[in-house]
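Review form for a predicted model. The reviewer records the input and the model, then writes brief findings.
Reviewer: anonymous (R2)
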Amino acid sequence: MPVRQLPEQIVNRIAAGEVVERPASVVKELVENAIDARASRIDVFTDGGGRRRIGITDDGSGMTARDLSLAVERHATSKLDDEDLLQIRTLGFRGEALPSIGSVARLSITTRHASEPHAWALSVEGGEKSEIMPAALAHGTRVEVNDLFYATPARLKFLKTDRTEAEAIREVVRRLAMARPDIAFTLAGEERAPVTWAAALPGAAGRLTRLGDILGAEFRSHAIEVHAERDGVVVAGYAAAPALTKANALGQYLFVNGRPVRDKLILGAVRAAYSDYLPRDRHPVLALFVTLDPREVDANVHPAKTEVRFRNAGLVRALIVHGLKEGLAREGRRTAANSGGSALSSFRPAFAPRPGNWDWRQSPSAPTAPLPSFEGTAAPAFAERVQAAFDVGAPTADVRIETQPVGDLVDRPLGAARTQIHETYIVSQTRDGLIIIDQHAAHERIVYERLKASLAKNGVQRQILLIPEIVEMDEATVERLLARSDELASFGLAIESFGPGAVAVRETPSLLGKADAGGLLRDLAEHMAEWDEALPLERRLMHVAATMACHGSVRAGRRLKPEEMNALLREMEETPNSGQCNHGRPTYVELKLADVEKLFGRR
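Model under review:
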């Protein structure tokens, strides 16, 4: 087939396919234009998921008649002062959005510049531009896109349902609204009720307000401020405490110089920063804003400008990890249960009588059998049964205030231990409330932090077993463990081959005490099966430490003495990140006295 020059109309439609992928792409380009026009308010309206109509109205600077005529020509832009593509300081700069949209839809633009006596209007249908006509508009610009892809019907077949496309539009507007809290946004459409995000105050407080409006009040209550800076690169924003997580990474947002982007860089950095706090199948919620010299980032690597390339990606990743770790360490004792009323909402009255003269015998769930008589000799028997119902036995640990002096312990952050229930949970009293501690989760974090500190200082102390413990496993598991024997030895766990299907354990970490070597090795082998060579050595070592900490901590079901419980509380207060165990579970919950009084109707 001979080489031929494509017609201009086909060229424009091919180019439009790179920029206009779906209705959400149109909304993204038009809202970015409004932001670049220094708008303080942007209204977005859609119909039919954006395929029938998209309307964007802003109060920005507007365009003159001459600018309007050029705006719908290919590669015409007001965003570049010169030909330097390394100094991109605006969201748009390629000059393809409006002509691309006009080549596949019916586009109309009405705009008014402050220097013009009135507004001007222009329309483009299937790439054909109309004459510029006078129009009525107070200020700013109004852009309407109707019958999207009518000029390329094949594209319509690849669009999803109206609701799905509307949700994609909503996500685009959400991201842009998070990036610019100083701009008011309104999003309306027949698919859902209108939503408005009012302009917020400048600074970190305004940013958190906007993030809370979009990501929810729960995010606002769990938000931890993040800030790190080095060599002209600033990473700022907010990350949720480990108590607030999702099953996927869709709640992680990255903005580079105000531009919403999707980058694998953030996924790896966030995973590394939260590795000590969350299970492997949970993901945190956060919004991070990276600011740096435009020359240090390439925003021109994707037609839709959704990806960027950093000149020094290692520095950006290191700052993200450092900022997140510093923020998490600073708020290390925050848990799901001591934030807001999440613990209080778990309590429900066991019995709530209905108002008025209510007879429980008339309830639909009431038994149909005749009611027994409690007269005569039946009454004492009934009283005995009632008394037996309240006889729950002695407490698992006698730590009553009459017998255990507490002194100033109630003024400590985790208070004074009062009792242990179910040989698993410690109940502690503070000056203004009570705390329930999961003894295994709490001690697990303590042992884990000790292992990390010992490894960083002078290596983990080990104890030599008088009689090596032989652990039998399948050959593949044995080979997997022996291949990592050096890494295990760095934590004081010395193993060697003992035939084709067994491992001999000769040394164990002193911190673990009398550990179950068999269970420990089997858990380690399961984790190692998921490792690959791309996983850094440091992360592999932390996986080993986390598994060892789980096996070396106080188990649920062990009865503790009062002094042991108080010692555990004091260690928690001194241990970093003690609000969660290294699997991401909270180590304690807190109820203020005022909350308890609400439960019993005292306030």
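Findings: The chain has three domains: 8-197, 204-330, 398-603.
Further findings: The chain has 18 helices and 25 strands.
Recommendation: see findings above.
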